[in-house]
Amino acid sequence: MKKTILAGALSIACFTGGFGIQAYAKGNEDVVNIIHPKQVVAATNQVQSMSYQDVYKMLLLSKLGFDNEDDLTLVTTKNSITVKISLKAIMETYADGTNLFPEGEKALQENLAEFKKLFGDAIQMRITQSGNSFTVEIFTAGKWQAASKEDMNDLITVFNRADVNLRPGGYFTDAIGHWAESYIQVLYQAGIVTGTTDTTFNPNGQVTRGQLAAMIFRASGLDVNEDYEGPASYKDMQGFWGAKEVAILQEYGLLEIFDGEYFEPNKPATREEMAHVTASYLEAMDFNVASANKNNTFSDKNQMRNEAVEAIGLLQQLGIIEGANGKFNPKANLTRAQFSKILTLTLMMASEE
Fold first, then answer.
1. Which residue of 24, 67, 191, 317 could cross-link 293, Cys pair, CB 3.0 to 4.6 Å?
2. What is the CB neighbour count within 10 angstroms for residue 268?
């Protein structure tokens, strides 16, 4: 019988309220708390005293706190961030019953017509890097106008969905403007992913089997000291840095797709291997896999390993994975950016269960 990863044992990936994290990186980092998507909370860090890099990271986390990706949009470049939030989204936030700032709702209602006159249907703000600091502009009355950092701090109360003690680092220059940059930042802040260097992530690089196991292990909240019961059955674990993590995941039944004598930790993981491990992770997290829809509609289903067909179907039906032109391409290698999105969505799905 497969072991179940008990929720009480988790040290990371504890998602609450639809989207929130309480995470300890390796058990001893500051807690990251990404709040419920329907709340607006003023950042405890005064924005005017933050670095440009930390503002960038904070806004990436905030973006994923919205149900509709069009509610808050970010356009990031090497030295600027343009952020836009719709007034409609702000009103919906106040209307959902979780408003922590009733005076803010009242002020917005009373001045909505004036806000629309000033901002149109959305508030837009542009933050431009200046050394380690930044300047702020707000689009109002049809043009960009300079704003103080104090003004920005007030607006962040509306824009921001995160009250976060940011981890040092995580400003990956090669992920700026990448479609996966928010997912990468969430997992970095949760201690699940690291960069290839202090300033690079290599989002389009391949994920090895060993790296796949390591990221799933960190997301599980398991502990190598408490959960290790003996070596894995694979014959090539000697000298591998993640040997204990692999052994523990094998014990929990998460690595059954790797059914040979050798694990080959440095071999690139395929998309179908990732899907099987991820689905096994959901099952180990006590997600109700048995009653879930596993209908696999990809046109290249006949190219998948038999044991991966339902796993891929499960993740497809849950909206965690998607293909291209109706195909999943199961034998293709997995990129670091792709898995950052997939793992983030998986953790969110596990939280709902």
1. 317
2. 17
197 forms beta bridges with: none
> Which tens digits make up the pLDDT trace of 179-211?
999 999 999 999 999 999 999 999 999 999 999
pLDDT digits (tens, 9 = 90+) for 242-295: 999 999 999 999 999 999 999 999 999 999 999 999 999 999 988 888 889 999
CA dist 49 and 47 (Å) reads 5
Shared domain for 150 and 200, answered yes or no, is: no
> Cβ–Cβ contacts within 10 Å for residue 96, how many?
11
- DSSP letters, 106-125, are HHHHHTHHHHHHHHTTEEEE
- Alpha-helical regions (H) of the chain: 52-63, 87-95, 102-110, 112-119, 149-159, 181-189, 209-220, 224-227, 243-251, 271-284, 306-317, 336-352
**13 part of a folded domain:** no
Residue 153: Cβ within 10 Å count:
19
* Alpha carbon distance 42, 254 (integer Å): 40
Residue 67 domain-assigned (yes or no): yes
